[in-house]
Specification:
Elements lengths: L8 H12 L6 H21 L16 E5 L12 E2 L2 E2 L2 E11 L3 E3 L8 E15 L7 E12 L1 H8 L3 E3 L7 E3 L2 E5 L7 H16 L3 H12 L11 E5 L6 E6 L5 H4 L6 E3 L2 H10 L3 E2 L5 E2 L2 H30 L7
Parallel strand pairs: 7-11, 12-13
Antiparallel strand pairs: 1-4, 1-10, 2-3, 4-6, 5-6, 6-7, 8-9, 9-10, 11-12, 14-15
Length: 326
């Protein structure tokens, strides 16, 4: 079937400019490429129709899921051990975390502040420490993260697996950042995002998202009496690559875990916040006391669980099941 397309003089002028700068070789090539891109969007809308699943979004704040695909890229050492034995092989070493907002801890150099994320999540590692390889999975729940600018740069400068000028979904070979606001995106854009999420993120890291779901909907997870459990990459030697907790955590939580150390020096870490200038919140508040900071973390823990139940479950659990033909 032959299709004739009329092109306005204005459009012809634009195409000629693109040809001159080498962006396309001819008018015919430009048209074919434009039609191909249009058909790709149309195909996605047909294959992944969203109209059947239009859901009234709860009036709750948006959140973000952060997935660090391999903790060894940012915090882990070269040599891991478990119960005094060297780890022979690591299959997984991820961190997954839900948060709504970030706070700032002033750094020693202007412009090099540390990012503090309050929310809920998990650190997990699947490994073997003897032959024949029998794999063990060890996980710890966390409700806070400290990340440095250097860490964030390392994660986001990895090779991109998703590129878009219109979507806030971010994904590289090292990290994925899923903003819950994509549920309000136009249907044609959601269709594209859903395909990327299902194939490149939700399916290969299904165990991470399942574990996040279980902990977020469980009333027993993140008990208030245990207080904050902060996964820290603060460069202070006492708080680098550690999960920092209070002394109220259970015995199981204290047990050895490859790739990271459990430290019960929460009071010292909070004091470091205060001595650095306090914890600066997005709403302009400055927290300068231990009680204020701990209360803030625990309040955001509860909020993050509710945000996941209201929106995260819709995006993660339902979008995971779309057709894998993308």
């Amino acid at each position: 079937m032959k299709i004739e397309i009329e092109i306005s003089e204005e459009m012809k002028e634009k195409i000629n400019k693109l040809i001159k700068i080498g962006r396309c070789s001819s008018e015919k090539d430009f048209i074919e490429e434009a039609v191909e891109k249009y058909m790709e969007v149309l195909d996605r809308a047909i294959i992944y129709p969203l109209t059947e699943e239009v859901i009234e979004r709860p009036e709750v704040p948006f959140g973000v899921v952060l997935l660090i695909k391999d903790w060894r890229h940012v915090g882990g050492g070269e040599i891991y051990s478990y119960l005094g034995k060297p780890v022979l092989e690591i299959q997984r070493n991820w961190v997954i975390f839900v948060y709504q907002e970030s706070a700032t801890i002033p750094g020693p150099i202007k412009g090099q502040d540390y990012q503090f994320l309050p929310g809920v999540g998990m650190y997990s590692i699947k490994f073997s420490h003897h032959k024949p390889n029998m794999y063990i999975t060890v996980s710890r729940e966390i409700n806070g993260m400290i990340l440095s600018p250097k860490t964030l740069d390392a994660l986001y400068n990895c090779e991109k697996i998703f590129k878009s000028t219109t979507s806030k979904l971010r994904a590289t070979e090292c990290v994925a950042e899923i903003p819950f606001e994509i549920i309000d995106h136009p249907l044609y854009l959601q269709s594209y995002e859903r395909g990327v999420l299902a194939v490149r993120i939700l399916t290969p890291y299904k165990d991470a998202f399942d574990m996040l779901h279980e902990s977020s909907v469980s009333d027993a997870a993140y008990p208030a009496h245990e207080g904050p459990k902060i996964l820290s990459l603060h460069p202070d030697v006492n708080f680098w690559n550690k999960i920092v907790t209070s002394e109220n955590i259970g015995e199981d939580y204290k047990q050895s875990i490859p790739g990271i150390e459990i430290s019960q020096n929460l009071n010292e870490l909070i004091q470091l916040f205060i001595e650095s200038g306090g914890l600066f919140l997005e709403d302009g508040r400055l927290l300068l006391s231990s009680k204020e900071i701990i209360d803030y973390i625990m309040e955001k823990t509860k909020e993050a669980k509710e945000i996941y139940k209201d929106l995260g479950d819709i995006i993660i659990r339902k979008w995971e099941k779309i057709d894998k033909r993308l």
